[in-house]
Automatic annotation (TrEMBL):
This is Proline--tRNA ligase. It is found in: Cytoplasm. InterPro entries: aa-tRNA-synt_IIb, aa-tRNA-synth_II, aa-tRNA-synth_II/BPL/LPL, Anticodon-bd, Anticodon-bd_dom_sf, Pro-tRNA-ligase_IIa, Pro-tRNA-ligase_IIa_arc-type, Pro-tRNA_ligase_II_C. Belongs to the class-II aminoacyl-tRNA synthetase family. ProS type 3 subfamily. GO terms for molecular function: ATP binding; proline-tRNA ligase activity. Consists of three domains: the N-terminal catalytic domain, the anticodon-binding domain and the C-terminal extension. Pfam families: HGTP_anticodon (PF03129), tRNA-synt_2b (PF00587). It comes from the Bacteria.
Length: 485
């Protein structure tokens, strides 16, 4: 598609596509219409965050900063340019990113100075090796939030598959023992559960198949969200690296007896895909439905103006805005020269959780009319109760969105005990649970059933006695099959 065609596609539609029928088109439209990102920057997979989208994303980042720091993780920053010699310290890691790596050239001879970081290991671990000398330097528990760069050759999708992965956090820890390493990984799972609750999306948590692990890693847990069309979006991973990377990057320490030991490591990462999951899960045919936790404005105040009462109405809405601000609620007063209907439409597109309306009749009745974005319910509230009721409604909306996500995620997943049944469910747009023995040849048989569908992991918590769907061997392992992003 040419740039001109892309611009036309983005700017001309006046009505959103139906989300259920045309999810991909809906998603691209809503990112543009709701001022989340603009994809017309003339480099593929590199997008411009618009203010509304960026503030939404920053609310999410502020929360992970809070969760991480509350639990003792220290925030660091490393340069974006990674020396090639750092990359080459782990040849297996570098071979996986060499073709996707952006090279940085400078000087009269255009010499390669390094690579733009595809992930953080090669930038961080040589420094960790310098910092860690004895057991007293452990554990080292840190994270950073930066951009990562990968020259994606596949179809890019804003916030889902980009060449510049913006607002991406990585936790990298080093421990003295395997036990401490495994405990840390469990902590990271719990941190991520808090992030998912914060965006009101219910994830699927899986063990990675062995061949999907980082080279030399001893385990890996991934989070996925299941989209309305039954596809699985990888959305965060906890990687138990063991000692593999510490050996490559020479991360060693002396114990109490002066004996040299190799560190044990965990790395965990995610970013804007969490926001993408929330936008896709909660949005509807009218636009976004933002969880109150991440909405730039939790309430938009819309005055219903008539010329005779204009002055008194504006005094009332200004006072209401001040009350919200004093209560710590993020609020916007929409005093543009537009009709109320146009304002309602604009804020429905942007998914503001609550809309507060005040007109002449409301002033007479000493009330405010509030409209919930997630279900459209209108509620008349006396002004003296409004702040407490608004706070209560924001909490209710957050809870309702999470419960809805839990219900819909469960509905998007079916169970199959035969390859034929699995194929039927996949044809219906379902994600499918199956019993699987974890053998590679059975994985291949499952993958061959439906083009694009594959096993993306085994349920981290649930077990179910049965027989492998491919070889009939007894197993209690439950795996998920779906098309993935």
């Amino acid at each position: 598609m040419t740039k001109e065609e892309e611009e036309e596609k983005l700017e001309l539609p006046k009505v959103l596509r139906a989300k259920k029928k045309e999810l991909s088109e809906w998603y691209h439209q809503i990112l543009f219409l709701a001022d989340i990102v603009d994809i017309r920057y003339n480099l593929k997979g590199m997008n411009v965050w618009k203010n509304y989208g960026y503030e939404t994303m920053l609310n999410l980042k502020r929360y992970w900063d809070y969760v991480f720091k509350k639990n003792g993780l220290k925030e660091l920053y490393f340069p974006q340019i990674v020396p090639i010699e750092y990359c080459e310290q782990n040849p297996e890691w570098w071979s996986g990113f060499k073709e996707q790596g952006f090279k940085v050239i400078a000087g009269e001879k255009d010499e390669i100075q390094g690579a733009l970081r595809p992930t953080g290991e090669a930038a961080m671990y040589p420094m960790y090796a310098m910092w860690i000398k004895t057991f007293r330097d452990l554990p080292l528990r840190a994270y950073e939030t930066v951009s990562s760069f990968r020259y994606e050759t596949r179809h890019t999708r804003p916030l889902i598959r980009d060449r510049e992965i913006t607002l991406w956090h990585e936790i990298h820890t080093v421990h003295a023992t395997k036990e401490d390493c495994l405990k840390e990984a469990q902590n990271h799972i719990e941190y991520y559960k808090q992030l998912w609750d914060f965006v009101a999306v219910h994830p699927v948590i899986v063990d990675k198949p062995g061949w999907e692990l980082f080279p030399g890693a001893i385990g890996g847990i991934e989070f996925y969200n299941i989209t309305p069309d039954g596809k699985a979006m990888e959305n965060g991973s906890v990687n138990i690296l063991g000692q593999a990377y510490a050996k490559k990057f020479n991360i060693k320490f002396k114990d109490k007896e002066g004996k040299e030991n190799i560190g044990w490591q965990v790395c965990t990462g995610n970013g804007a895909r969490l926001l993408a999951a929330a936008l896709i899960q909660h949005g509807d045919d009218k636009g976004l439905v933002l969880p109150p936790n991440i909405a730039p404005y939790q309430v938009v105040v819309v005055p219903i103006l008539f010329e005779k009462e204009k002055e008194i109405i504006m005094k009332n809405v200004e006072k209401l805005k001040e009350m919200f601000e004093n209560a710590g609620i993020r609020v916007l007063l929409d005093d543009r020269e537009e009709t109320p209907g146009r304002k309602f439409y604009d804020w429905e597109i942007k998914g503001v959780p609550l809309r507060a309306e005040i007109g002449p009749e409301d002033i007479k009745k000493n009330q405010v009319v509030i409209v919930k974005r997630n279900d459209g319910k209108k509620i008349a509230i006396k002004k003296e109760l409004f702040i407490s009721e608004a706070n209560s409604l924001l909490k209710t909306i957050q809870e309702e969105l999470l419960k809805k996500s839990q219900k819909e995620t469960a509905e998007r997943i079916g169970y199959a005990d035969s390859l034929k049944k699995m194929e039927e469910l996949l044809e219906k747009g379902k994600c499918v649970k199956i019993n699987w023995c974890k053998k590679g040849e059975c994985y291949d048989r499952v993958k061959a059933v439906k083009e694009g569908a594959e096993i993306f992991g085994s349920d981290y918590y649930e077990k179910k006695k049965g027989r492998c769907i491919a070889c009939d061997e007894e197993t209690d392992n439950l795996a998920y099959v779906a098309k993935t992003y």
